[in-house]
Amino acid sequence: MGVKRQGWEKTTMKILVLGADGYIGWPLCLRLESLGHEVHGFDNYVRRLRVKEVGSNSAIPIAEPDIRNNIFEIRSGSLKYLYELDGYDAIVHLAEQPSAPYSMQNVRFACETVNQNVMGTMNLLYLMKEQNPDAHLVKLGTMGEYGTPSCDIPEGFIEDGPMKGLPFPKQAGSFYHLSKVFDTQCIEFACRTWGLRSTDIMQGIVFGTRTKELNHPDKMTRFDYDQYFGTVINRFCAQAVAEVPLTVYGGGGQTRGFLPLKDSLECLVLAIENPPAHGEYRVFNQFGKIYSVTALAAYIERACRNLGMMARTKAIDNPRIEAEMHHYEPRCEKLRMLGYNPNWEIWEEMEAIIEDLIPYKYHINKKVIYPTTTWK
Amino acid sequence: MGVKRQGWEKTTMKILVLGADGYIGWPLCLRLESLGHEVHGFDNYVRRLRVKEVGSNSAIPIAEPDIRNNIFEIRSGSLKYLYELDGYDAIVHLAEQPSAPYSMQNVRFACETVNQNVMGTMNLLYLMKEQNPDAHLVKLGTMGEYGTPSCDIPEGFIEDGPMKGLPFPKQAGSFYHLSKVFDTQCIEFACRTWGLRSTDIMQGIVFGTRTKELNHPDKMTRFDYDQYFGTVINRFCAQAVAEVPLTVYGGGGQTRGFLPLKDSLECLVLAIENPPAHGEYRVFNQFGKIYSVTALAAYIERACRNLGMMARTKAIDNPRIEAEMHHYEPRCEKLRMLGYNPNWEIWEEMEAIIEDLIPYKYHINKKVIYPTTTWK
Question: What ipTM is given for this predicted complex?
Answer without folding.
Answer: 0.95
